[in-house]
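Example 4.3 (complexes with small molecules)
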Amino acid sequence: MSPEVALASVSGLALVLGLWLLREYQYGKKYRLPPQVPGVPLFGNSFQIPALQQGPWAKDLAAKYGEMFTCKFGANTWVFLNSSRVVNDLLERRAAIYASRPPFPMTQGIMSGESRIVLMPYNERWRMLRKIMHQILSSRQQDIFKPFQDLESKNLCWDYLQTPDRWWSANARYANSVIMSVVFGRRSMLDDPDVIELFETLELFLENQQPGVNIVDAFPILDKLPKVLQWWRPRGQRIFEQTVNVYKRELDRMEEKMANGTQRECFGTDFIKTEEVKNMTEVQKLFVFGTLMEAGSDTSRVTLGQIIAGAATYPDWVSRARAQLDEVCGNNAERLPQWEDREKLNYISAVVKEGFRWRPNIAEIGAPTMLTRDDEYEGYRFPAGTVFTWNAWAIALNPGEYEEPERFWPERFLNGQEENALKGHWAFGPGRRVCVGWKVGEMNVWIAIARLLYCFDFEEIPGKPIDTMSIPQLTKHTAPFDVKVTPRSVKHEELIRRDCAYAAEVRY
Ligand code: HEM
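Answer. The structure with protoporphyrin IX containing FE bound is encoded below.
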């Protein structure tokens, strides 16, 4: 580092320190926040929070502090909401003022060219993009997704039969191929290098998104330093370029096929002709496609893994799921579960909901939203700019919320609300930022898990027990845990050969 850069960095930090002290003073006088977890000056709790898998850490704090506690991550004040009651009161009922996002100069500004919808403030741009996403992903579009989910879940069973030790890659391919088929009109195959790179860039984004990882996200004022002094910028820029290249490769491929007349009709072919796109920059357009690919792939893959871990570690419920599956589809592998069976397979719908609740490791400490004006609640006074999150792990594993919370127990959701996928857990988030792809995600998991449970056994491997409390979300293309996958019987194997083999041959 040159002396000029060093001097400027020191001045920058001194400025931050001064502003921080001033703000602490003003805060103390005017506002009242829930109990604060002790931290260090300036950086607060940034060095305590684990870089990944923060759920157990935040759950322990909830056990100590009760329904709400406050953490400081640099200049940002986070209030963790640790019960469904307070999440409902604030993030649901007062959603209009609790739905924005705090600034993320690194992950949103540099790494995403200000264009990732999930990190956008609650404004007109977000509303426009949310509308576009909703048009593709809402429950009204079920019939568009169903045939792709049918084909891809047959391919999934085929992959499990052929390469059972690659079950996690098969899950990733499955989830990715459904969304690729709808958005780009193309399938993805096992070990597709483009898919592997998509997951790599997504994991880079998620790693960088954790609180405390990037100094400029902790102290957004540092974004005001001249660009040449921002030592984090070149790294962010490199990730941005790599990410955009992954998205662009897909778009280029589609446009090439459109030009030579071989492209299938799909969301992408319609979307690039719309008025909305004409008003977007190239980067904004690429991030619409990129967000769909990323958010659509990773989440279903992770949830399928969770349910498999639940089947291997709490096998009692699997026999009850099988009893219903066998009653509907035959107890001698007569046929695969179909969409038309859904009404009769309410136990499977309960399994899917339990899979979302059990170990919510897609957003272990929720997703941060920012309060847009001062607010009061039960004796507290929150300033505008406070960040709020639902403490997902703490709520999901609280015996006050769920009986025997550590157990995978689908019966807890056999309550007449099986088809209401959003009710009874917070896996898709609360309020106005609730996951816009929840219906697609839920359907992805439903048909895949119905078929996998009907056809395969999942067992722990002796000597390699699954630690269900620390299943990683970010796996760098490796298995999140070890599990033995075998077909249920010779008859089930024959069923897969008969009904699923063709799926691996279909090309578009
Ligand atoms: C399968 C299970 C899925 C889970 C558990 C899940 C979970 C989540 C969560 C926790 C959020 C943040 C909510 C918040 O900030 O309060 C979110 C946002 C989002 N999800 Fe999902 N998701 C899933 C599937 C999908 C799919 C299939 C898509 C698209 C194809 C998708 C697209 C999005 C988008 C675009 C957002 C950002 C919404 C916004 O900020 O307005 N998700 N999701």
